[in-house]
Amino acid sequence: MAKAEGWERDNKLEMEGLHDNSDDEDDDDDDESEDSEEEIEPKLKYERLANDLSSILSKDAASCIAVHPKFLALGTHWGMIHILDHIGNNIRDKEIMAHTTTVNQISIDQNGDYMASCSDDGRVIITGLYATENNQVVTFDRPVKAISLDPLYYMSNSGRQYVTGDDKLILNERSGFLGRHKMTVLHQGEGPIRNIKWGGKFIAWANNNGVKVYDMSTKSKITKIDKDHDLRPELCVCQLVWRDDKTLLIGWGDRVKICVVKEQNRSELKDRMPTRYVEITAMFTTDFYVCGIAPLATNLVVLSYDKPDEKQEKGRLSANRPHLQILEPHMKHFEEISNDALSIRGFEEYRCNDYHLECIPEENLFFIVSPKDVVVARLRDQDDHITWLMEHDRYEEAMAAASEHSKELKTHTYLAIGKAYLNYLLEGGYYDDAGHLCVKILGKKKDSWEEEIYKFAKIHQLKAIAPYIPRSEPRLERAIYEMVLNEFLITDCERFYQLVKEWPSDLYDNESIINAILGRLDREKKPELLLQSLGQLYAHQKAYDKALDIYLRLKHEDVFQLIHTHLLYDKISDKIIQLMDLDQERTVKMLLDNNDTVPISKVVQQLNKSQRYLYVYLDCLVQRDLQGTQEYHGQLVKLYAEFDRPKLLPFLRRSEFYPLQTAWEECQVRDYVKEQVFLLGRMGNLTQALKLIMERLQDVEHAIQFCMEQADQELWGNLVDYAMDKPNFITALLRNVGAHIDPIIVISRIQKGMEIPGLRDSLVKILQDYNLQLSLRDGCRKILVSDSFNLMDRLVRTQKRGVFVDGMSAMAANLLD
To answer: Are strands 334-341 and 11-12 parallel, antiparallel or unpaired?
Structure first.
């Protein structure tokens, strides 16, 4: 037995009227297994046909059905045939009193123009639905169990053929000039024929021994498919359906076969062999009985009935619900794709043959018939898929499906799904996620945005949607923005301030928001954020003085951005010290970059109140423009002396625009010796400068360097005089004499017996330097003599050289003479 592979689930019908609270004995176990597994989306949806059909079945019971894209033909146990539309309404009150007992089978031609029926009363009736000239009533002397019209019966040249089945398979047709009724026995002797299906060129029928196929084009039987089970035919009728002109589906008992008519290889044909044969492409056994079979693309739709596992309840048979399954067939097994339990009315009392399944393949409609019920199943479309996803809270998948299949949707829209998702998130408390999704869902729809914002406001969760509220495209009503701002003004001052900064000022009424802030200021213990917001709003109103005052009062760094954004440089001349208190570096840079708007004189005037700030400003100013700040160099000397001495001496060296006497006095007061030395040197008081170096600094190297710079022999003499009683100083002098002072003078003045550190080395160096000088002089003399001789020789040769004179030049010379 082939084992069914796939999901094991038992979906109850969800449509109203199809869900039955009477569960099978295994339902509790099924429910428990469903809870432990993820629910799988059903493939089909169901609807119970009602309208006129309800009243018909309340008085009678259905025995068979035939379906066509135009209508349904329902046969009953009282012999009636009702023509209905696909939702159960009578079509033009057509009700045919066809038979006196149960209608066994109904067949409709391909065009839907003619209908044939048979019954146990032995009558076969052919009824034209739009014309009556080809109507027929044929009476047999035995019950007729099956009938099938030629699909092309509606064509006048088709011979008006149909096949009936009782103990014989009889081909009925009209032939000859007068169109007489002709009967041809195609098969007999194997018991009652209970089902016939005519598809294209082929007729398939089932009797007690199996299924046979007859080829109408060759007038021959081409195959026999044996019955491979021992079930009684009257309890489980063989189900036959042509998927197409060459593919036959067979469902009989618990066996399913798929058979394909193929052409014989002509090279292998023998005498009287049929030109076609049937190949079984799939064959498997199920764990249920087949009540009906139908094609669904490459899959099968099977109406199934549980195998007898019956129990007696109060002396009556109690059956389980039938199932409608979608199977994927393979050669020896199948995979179950879906399995829906049908709550058919009165299913507890029905047997396998009480159910019928017919389909309209073009529309994927499947009609399930029981004596008191007709249910139509159809493939779920994108609307159904989205509905199921939403019912299972899978909104993101639903939105993706709606976006991808928007043209196929009839009941759903992307926006409606998105709004439902937002409601779901809000109800679940996922406020931030809902706010974030608003942009994706609502897009540029103004009314939808306003509707959702009011929902957030109602549950006091505006903070979740505020970052995503559009400011343009679409621009919402002012009341929306003001509502959001007022909410944050009360609940979250920091977020309020952020919105005031981020939102354009024309989105809301500035004056009303300012008044609201002023009304809350006195009640706030920490009003800083409110004041910042107020400053921003004043800036929106171009009340820059008020905005500046607030920011400076708060010492908030945004004041610089405010000044830069709105070019308020002309309004800060009296606020410079406050700005310096806030950020010296940014203030100075701003002032230097805007000298034209904020003159240096005004800045200096303001900063005179704070010498430290004045130093910072003038220091940066002189670094940028030394020549253009001459009038402030005198102040800078004092400021450098007070706040940054390392910069004083470089400045004194670099500048020539400060009063020397004043600068010297400032350095003298502060006892800045090096600076005094430089200033005394620049003032010409070299002796006092050298004295400071020798006495205060005691730096002989500095003294020697100073003398070298001044190039004054008297100054060198003073240095030598001062150094004579200081051995270390003498050593330094001996190392540096030569070019600037005669070493004999220094050596001759050294006292006898004085110990001079490094004297020998100094004397050696002096001698080496002297020899070097002599060598340089001799070399220079030789070069000079050589150059003199060379130049003299060149002059003599030049003067001895002949001069070219032409005739005209000679004549001119004679005339001159």
So the answer is: parallel
Contact between residue 135 and residue 95 where contact means Cβ atoms under 8 Å apart: no
Q: Helix (H, G, I), strand (E, B), or coil: what is residue 684?
A: coil
For residues 258 and 282, the answer to whether their CB atoms sit within 8 Å is yes
Residue 572 pLDDT grade (very low, low, confident, very high; cuts 50, 70, 90): confident
Q: Which long-range contacts (CB under 8 A, 24 or more apart) does 123-128 make?
A: 123/98, 123/99, 124/162, 124/164, 124/172, 125/96, 125/98, 125/99, 126/160, 126/162, 127/81, 127/96, 127/98
Tell me what the pLDDT averaged over the chain comes to: 84
- E strand or H helix that includes residue 336: strand 334-341
Give the number of residues written for the chain: 817
Distance separating alpha carbons of residues 670 and 687, to the nearest angstrom: 21
Tokens of 485: 């701002």
606-611, long-range: CB within 8 Å, 24+ apart, which pairs? 606/573, 606/574, 606/576, 606/577, 607/576, 607/577, 607/580, 609/577, 610/577, 610/580, 611/639, 611/642, 611/643
Has this prediction a pTM greater than 0.85?
A: no
Render pLDDT for 396-445 as a digit per residue (tens, 0 to 9): 999 999 999 999 899 999 999 999 999 999 999 999 999 999 999 999 99
Sign of CA dihedral 170, 367, 323, 410: positive
DSSP-assigned beta bridge partners for residue 197? 204
Residue 285, classed as helix, strand or coil, is strand
**Does residue 434 contact residue 425 with C-beta atoms inside 8 Å?**
yes
- Residue 679 confidence (pLDDT): 84
> Of the candidates 620, 617, 665, 657, which has an alpha carbon nearest to the alpha carbon of residue 638?
665
Residue 4: what pLDDT? Answer: 30
